[in-house]
């Protein structure tokens, strides 16, 4: 399996370069790039696993989320430069929905098919729940509602204020997890579970591969993004659907493959940390950072989503919390998350 | 007590037949039918109890919910045929509110007056919470919001898509509960509680009575429904109030009497399974089934409730979850649910 | 420290009297009164602590909430008399937000800086969660949504109906806590924690001080309130911002100082009881009481908040519940609540 992925990467990257120079047709580029992204993502999954074995699920999950979201951040900055504010907000929405419902759902479902009951840290789940409610239900909803009776300047001031608060809180949360409360909530089981397992790669090698794979994914993703418009036209996809669903699926391929890999090895702590941790990073760090960056761009981006986007995110958060609050999962809970994703997908498709 | 109910049924059914043939006044028919329905429902309660003793709380609760909701399904199909889409959606709303707040509230309250703390399975409560959020907060809210900027055809497509997904997920949930995870979450206490208790009726007899009682309830309910308009006019009740409150109280009489009976015997697992299980069956099976059936009717019914209906259901779900999530109840939690029902009742009355 | 506060009270109260007679400038009165209120509040904190040691956290928290909210009730009645319905609703909103997010947040944050993990009763937290959802999500949201298609008379009827139900339920909740279920949920740890501690003041003395301090706070608060308009003009604060943020901070100074004092002594049960108990008293008792009182005033007040007020309260409740449901807190959870308060504060400032 690993060999196949290695060959696909060796083949896919040069083909992407060739295709973008020779202006191949959008459909063929779409297929080449998609396969390549997925193949490269498998390397990111293996690197994360190696790091998680050495450094624990939190650092592993954090690194995976960071490198995964780095790709999105880069693409979004290019989109901001082009003034495509609607696309940026749509792809942020898509990342939140994709990570919570699709990555989370597939992890619970596929992991649950192998293991009847899978457990993960209740303390982390609750820490994350509080932040999900803060980020999506408070920090995204307030500007939406309040801006309805505000002019543009005030809406932007509110957005910037909220963005600064969110970034500070996100960094404080990392500080809590990794410094002041490191190990405070460690469960006794954790020790017993980690039978001495050998990482596939050394920490240094794994990190190097993670960086290289991120760069490669970023490059190929960009080519992929350029095919969307033409592919969308041929398949009859609206811009919103492409932003929320297609961009999000491709842009989060790294999180997908890592989380599912972990779930199928019954390492649910890492899987959940990737799915929810990545969502939190998008909502509390990437989104506000883009608002602040947009101030130096031709068009400033307020933190105001469309109503369907906001409702989809808020209901996804409530569903995720009610499904994950008990620190346990099974295939059916995964199916529930996937069903919600499908419903929203149909909704955005028809919109 | 049981003898009184038997006499009431023996008297009430023939009177209903006579009354509908001889066109008695609406008020007298309203009283006769209401009493008869309640009397028949007591048989459904006793049958459920017998089955629950033999087959466990889940099967017992499921059978009760199914036979209880069968009545509603039949009446709703007749209403769809007559093109009364608003009435069907109102009575679905009423069933959700009635089961969660009225049946649940009365069970907690009356059970709680007898026992200080009543416990029920936390695992079932959480499984149900996830599905309640899925059904009402995701699957009912999304079409409401998204359809605001959609034409009728697309709204209907979205409704049908969501309906199919809900039915599949509902069946998968039953599969999980009754097949793959049967007994996985069984608590050690459960065994100790079930002191060897003798069922009143054999399984076969209980099932027969359940079927016969359902048919009788369906017949009498139909006569009852025809009195609503006249009674409503005399009492000054709006159509929405009749649909949401009156139809729901009568239509769920079976669930009421069974659940309360169980709660007062401290069998909270069955009582909760009836109240919440019946809600889930309405929201995830009966409602979507009616959407699909309506496609073959003169007027198709989209899954779009009025805003007050949706807000009432969504807040009822949030309240139920926050009250039941700890696997414990007392009379005050019952009173809280009843107070919420009363508030909504006043709201729909004044609307 | 206590001596400083004693001197400040001895100095501040006469100065306030002098200032209001001699018509000193608003800014100087604003500063004098604010300092005096905070100094008096410290006495209320100490009195509460003495009572809590003798009577337990529930009675202590209840008394503190009652005396704290008595001030607000008195001021609101004066405002109702003047027909300032918008100001009353805004200050009710501010009390809910201030108690949940500011008092709760500061308690968690400052307590958490001293103690890594602080615990409080899960049963009380869940009892309170259910009531918060009932009060804010059901009883405040329903009239908001339903009144959109109602005339004024019906809106007022709905408001009065809901108000009566809320007051009855609130009293029933006290009855449960203090009579029928007193000690039912007492945790075994509680006994061990209460090392024999000597109260600073006797119960009688503490109660006397509580009453006197409340009267003094009420007097000084009134003078303070009269400075708001002028101060607001000078600082460019809108009426809504003054009502929701400034009035609430000053009006809840007693709760602030008591709760934080308790949190820093690791008595989180009392701190949480003050923060959430006070919110519940405002939402379920003070607000409905004001609706009923307003019937005898020139202008009746319906229970209909503005949309930003309602959304702020509802999201604050969801955040509080998700942060406090595990019966544990740390400095980061406090910071999350404070961040939410700050976001809403910016929002109301810009509105």
From TrEMBL, chains A, B, C:
<keyword id="KW-0109">Calcium transport</keyword>
<feature type="transmembrane region" description="Helical">
    <location>
        <begin position="28"/>
        <end position="47"/>
    </location>
</feature>
<comment type="similarity">
    <text>Belongs to the Ca(2+):cation antiporter (CaCA) (TC 2.A.19) family.</text>
</comment>
<keyword id="KW-0472">Membrane</keyword>
<dbReference type="InterPro" id="IPR004713">
    <property type="entry name" value="CaH_exchang"/>
</dbReference>
<keyword id="KW-0106">Calcium</keyword>
<keyword id="KW-0406">Ion transport</keyword>
<feature type="transmembrane region" description="Helical">
    <location>
        <begin position="59"/>
        <end position="79"/>
    </location>
</feature>
<dbReference type="GO" id="GO:0012505">
    <property type="term" value="C:endomembrane system"/>
</dbReference>
<feature type="domain" description="Sodium/calcium exchanger membrane region">
    <location>
        <begin position="206"/>
        <end position="344"/>
    </location>
</feature>
<feature type="transmembrane region" description="Helical">
    <location>
        <begin position="85"/>
        <end position="110"/>
    </location>
</feature>
<protein>
    <recommendedName>
        <fullName>Ca(2+)/H(+) antiporter</fullName>
    </recommendedName>
</protein>
<feature type="transmembrane region" description="Helical">
    <location>
        <begin position="274"/>
        <end position="297"/>
    </location>
</feature>
<feature type="domain" description="Sodium/calcium exchanger membrane region">
    <location>
        <begin position="26"/>
        <end position="177"/>
    </location>
</feature>
<feature type="transmembrane region" description="Helical">
    <location>
        <begin position="131"/>
        <end position="150"/>
    </location>
</feature>
<comment type="function">
    <text>Ca(+)/H(+) antiporter that extrudes calcium in exchange for external protons.</text>
</comment>
<keyword id="KW-0050">Antiport</keyword>
<keyword id="KW-0812">Transmembrane</keyword>
<dbReference type="GO" id="GO:0016020">
    <property type="term" value="C:membrane"/>
</dbReference>
<dbReference type="InterPro" id="IPR044880">
    <property type="entry name" value="NCX_ion-bd_dom_sf"/>
</dbReference>
<dbReference type="InterPro" id="IPR004837">
    <property type="entry name" value="NaCa_Exmemb"/>
</dbReference>
<keyword id="KW-1133">Transmembrane helix</keyword>
<dbReference type="GO" id="GO:0015369">
    <property type="term" value="F:calcium:proton antiporter activity"/>
</dbReference>
<feature type="transmembrane region" description="Helical">
    <location>
        <begin position="206"/>
        <end position="228"/>
    </location>
</feature>
<dbReference type="InterPro" id="IPR004798">
    <property type="entry name" value="CAX-like"/>
</dbReference>
<keyword id="KW-0813">Transport</keyword>
<dbReference type="GO" id="GO:0006874">
    <property type="term" value="P:intracellular calcium ion homeostasis"/>
</dbReference>
<dbReference type="Pfam" id="PF01699">
    <property type="entry name" value="Na_Ca_ex"/>
</dbReference>
<feature type="transmembrane region" description="Helical">
    <location>
        <begin position="240"/>
        <end position="262"/>
    </location>
</feature>
<feature type="transmembrane region" description="Helical">
    <location>
        <begin position="303"/>
        <end position="324"/>
    </location>
</feature>
<feature type="transmembrane region" description="Helical">
    <location>
        <begin position="331"/>
        <end position="350"/>
    </location>
</feature>
<feature type="transmembrane region" description="Helical">
    <location>
        <begin position="156"/>
        <end position="176"/>
    </location>
</feature>
């Amino acid at each position: 399996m690993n060999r196949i992925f290695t060959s696909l990467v060796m083949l896919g990257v040069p083909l992407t370069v060739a295709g973008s120079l020779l202006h191949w047709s959008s459909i063929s580029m779409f297929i080449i790039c998609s396969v390549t992204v997925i193949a490269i993502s498998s390397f990111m999954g293996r690197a994360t696993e190696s790091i998680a074995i050495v450094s624990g699920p939190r650092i592993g999950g954090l690194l995976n989320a960071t490198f995964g979201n780095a790709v999105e951040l880069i693409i979004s900055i290019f989109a901001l430069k082009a003034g495509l504010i609607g696309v940026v907000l749509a792809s942020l929405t898509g990342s939140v929905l994709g990570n919570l419902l699709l990555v989370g759902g597939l992890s619970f479902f596929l992991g649950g098919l192998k293991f009847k009951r899978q457990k993960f840290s209740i303390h982390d789940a609750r820490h994350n729940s509080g932040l999900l409610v803060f980020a999506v239900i408070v920090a995204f909803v307030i500007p939406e509602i309040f801006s309805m009776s505000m002019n543009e300047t005030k809406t932007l001031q509110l957005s910037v204020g909220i963005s600064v608060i969110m970034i500070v809180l996100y960094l404080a949360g990392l500080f809590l997890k990794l410094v002041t409360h490191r190990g405070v909530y460690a469960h006794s089981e954790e020790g017993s579970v980690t039978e001495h397992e050998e990482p596939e790669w050394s920490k240094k090698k794994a990190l190097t591969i993670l960086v290289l794979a991120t760069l490669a994914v970023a490059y190929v993703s960009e080519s992929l993004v350029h095919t969307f418009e033409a592919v969308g036209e041929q398949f009859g996809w609206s811009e919103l659907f492409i932003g929320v669903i297609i961009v999000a699926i491709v842009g989060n391929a790294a999180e997908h493959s890592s989380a599912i890999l972990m779930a199928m090895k019954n390492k649910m702590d890492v899987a959940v940390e990737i799915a929810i941790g990545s969502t939190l990073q998008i909502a509390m760090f990437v989104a506000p950072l883009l608002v602040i960056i947009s101030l130096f761009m031709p068009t400033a981006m307020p933190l105001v989503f469309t109503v369907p986007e906001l409702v989809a995110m808020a209901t996804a958060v409530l569903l995720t919390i009610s499904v994950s609050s008990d620190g346990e999962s099974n295939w059916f809970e995964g199916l529930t998350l996937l069903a919600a994703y499908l419903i929203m997908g149909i909704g955005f498709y028809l919109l």
